[in-house]
Fold this sequence. Notes:
CATH architecture of the largest domain: 3-Layer(aba) Sandwich
CATH topology of the largest domain: Rossmann fold
Order of helices and strands: EHHEHEHEHEHEHHEHEHEHEHEHEHHH
Mean pLDDT: 95
CATH superfamily of the largest domain: Glycogen Phosphorylase B
Strand order of the largest sheet: 3-2-1-4-5-6
Radius of gyration: 21 Å
Helix content: 40-55%
Amino acid sequence: MKPKLLRITTVPVSLKTLLKGQHRYMSQHFEVVGVSSPGEALQEVAVNEGIRVRALEMTRSLSPLRDLRSLWQLVKLIRQEKPQLVHTHTPKAGTVGMLAAWLCRVPVRLHTVAGLPLMEATGPKRVLLNGVEKMTYACATRVYPNSFGLRDFIVQSGFCKPGKLHVIGQGSSNGIDTAHFSPAAVSVEQREQTKQSLGLAPGDFVFVFVGRLVRDKGIQELVTAFGMVHKRFPQTKLLLVGNEEPELDPLTPETRATIRKHQNIMSTGYQTDVRPFLAVSHALAFPSYREGFPNVPMQAGAMGLPCIVTDINGCNEIVTDGHNGLIIPPKNAEALEAAMIRLLDDRALTQQLASQARESIVSRFEQQGVWELIKAEYDKQLEKAGMNV
């Protein structure tokens, strides 16, 4: 019989998108059960990945009573399923999942750290989140930061002993399907249709952002910087591909108003396929405050775009300054403006960065290789726990 593996995320869209394809690959070797909050996306995971799923209510926000209810329900679920491995992703799922797996004495308890919201917290909230993070790692048998910078932050913060931490390959939770994210994957017809739908004209230079339109992603700095760039280069456009999360991390009313009113800022909302938008763009602007190991710069790079990113863990491991993009300080609209102008002023540099972008991703983060490394890690941890693989 195959060992049973529970993969847990707080919301089902994480199972569906962040780990896309990995469940189906792992089901060749394990009995995989996906666990997340209920919703249509969870059922899509079952169909698309060919695995069994279980729905369990969890919240992304701090909610002690609801979290205790989730913990109790997950303990019952684990006792029913009797898995040999539990692997959690996303912060709340990690806390609830690792504690429940520890209480149930699951032999192999694994947690992937793909970003830490506490990095932007202060005061009593930061103290509380630090304590929660330490508890999560204490309950795990192995912890996987998905970037080397994140690993260093965890060690420096005293959350966990270095020996319990391991970065898979060169980083990333799922790698990237470089055949899917390829300039060749978007037809000439698709590009023209996308240009027409966005009202792009010949000669326009398009900066694109993909992700949640929230403060932590640097959207306010991006909108401010673009406003200044546009005054000097009227044929620039800013394309925002993603949805707002006003209940968690709202933009200021001024920034939201600028996005709505600026004639050269286009906001598409959430898109299931971002490739056509990347294909009609010239550079990615991704001024995030914090990341684990972000997918977007990998996707953009694989599509042949130079990337402007902030000097934070993950981003500065995907982008090498002056090779496949530019690196700027976080929370700095002036530095972002200067980087955008540099790409507009020096088209030879922009072309050079673009020509090296795809290979820099393919050589380090091809998805199949990442999956094989994760599977090997599962086998190693099962053997370490005294279980036959």
